[in-house]
Amino acid sequence: FDFTADLENQLDEVSAGARAYKSVLDAFWRDFSASLAETAELRITEVLEKINEVLEPHLFPPKPDGSDPRGCPSCGTGRLSMRTARSGGAFIGCGNYPECRYTRPFGPPNPEGEDGTSLGGDGKMLGVDPDSSLPVTLRDGRFGPYVQLGEATSEEPKPKRASLPKGWEVASMDLDAALKLLNLPRMIGPHPEDGQPVEAAIGRYGPYVSYKSTDAAKPIYANLPEVDEVWTIGMNRAVELLAAKAAGRGGRGATAAAPLNELGEHPEHGGPIQVMAGRYGPYVKWDKINATLPKDVAPEALTLAEAVALIAEKAAKGGKGSKAVKAKTAKPKAAAKPKKAAAKPKAKPAAKKG
């Protein structure tokens, strides 16, 4: 305040002709450039820590129980501090990131919930998107629960939203799961024929992959059997599903490609194991699992044991593969014991004639 008041007096004297403006600018620049020189070599972490110290009474007010106001309420070991996002915004995050992904909006803790997870009538606070610094909330709408990025404003009247897929429980939703939904559609890659994008997303009728070729009037949509496959499906399987849909609306009338090699039945779970030609190289196909062959393995040289190992490795990574294996290994239900046939009633003796 003293600096501002003194500078205003000097500018008044310049306006009145009692002081030369060059001397005022010279004195200002001398002190200003010296301050810049002192901070030029500082790292961003040092600047942020200084801001944390200055704003600590506002950002991290004392807690009623006397515990550390900068202690992370999620992991219990991290220290909260102001952090910056790629977009230039700021938020409060845990120092143990990425092991702990606790975040809350920039400012003091929410009075309705010191852990920053409650927004009262505006839904449940899940955290802050590190890329945009916008809050991510879980809400209940007319058509069920959904997640939302940011708040409605005059510039952005319709913030980005994503409904929870069927089978996803509200109680298990966290920031990572919400960001997975909000970041859809997922780009699988360019189509090998024309380079147009192949994407996976969740629509009104469930999960799907889509692609629009350069010479087609409308895009092709092919349904996916499981929601989790939206984040795990690769290009080979996506192109296979899209080709089947284009040829026969889900596969009817489509001609199946001939396998490069027939390896036989799976030794544990049954079902044929084949080596197929894919857009990105040969792969092993069993049930609904597609496992890419290593570059140093020729399709004709692959053995059944090697194929089973590739299938197990792909299934262990989760997604559709693991569910297929579980379905195959599920114990069959015990057959019901046959019921005893009811005893036939004895025939009544014929009446004697009189």
Oligomeric form: single chain
How much helical structure, as a percent, in the residues? 25-40%
Going across the major beta sheet, what is the strand order?
A: 4-5-6-7
**Overall 3D form:** elongated
**What share of the residues does DSSP label as strand, in percent?**
15-25%
Q: Give the tally of β-strands.
A: 15
Count of separate structural domains: 4
Q: Low-confidence spans: pLDDT under 50, at least 5 residues?
A: 112-121, 249-255
Query: Could you state the order of secondary-structure elements as H and E?
Result: HHHEEEEEEEHEEEEHEEEEHH
Count of DSSP helices? 7
Mean pLDDT: 80
Rg, nearest Å: 33 Å
Report on the biggest sheet: 4 strands, antiparallel
Distance between the termini: 135 Å
Quickly describe the structure.
The chain has four domains: 2-41; 58-182, no CATH class; 186-248, no CATH class; 261-327, no CATH class. It contains seven helices and 15 strands.
Walk me through the structure.
The protein is about 25% helix and about 20% strand. It has about 350 residues and is an alpha+beta fold. It folds into 4 domains: about 1-40; about 60-180, no CATH class; about 185-250, no CATH class; about 260-325, no CATH class. A 4-stranded antiparallel β-sheet has the order 4-5-6-7, covered by helices on one side. A 4-stranded antiparallel β-sheet has the order 8-9-10-11, covered by helices on one side. Strand 10 (about 205-210) and strand 11 form a beta hairpin. Helix 6 (about 305-315) packs across helix 7 (about 320-330).
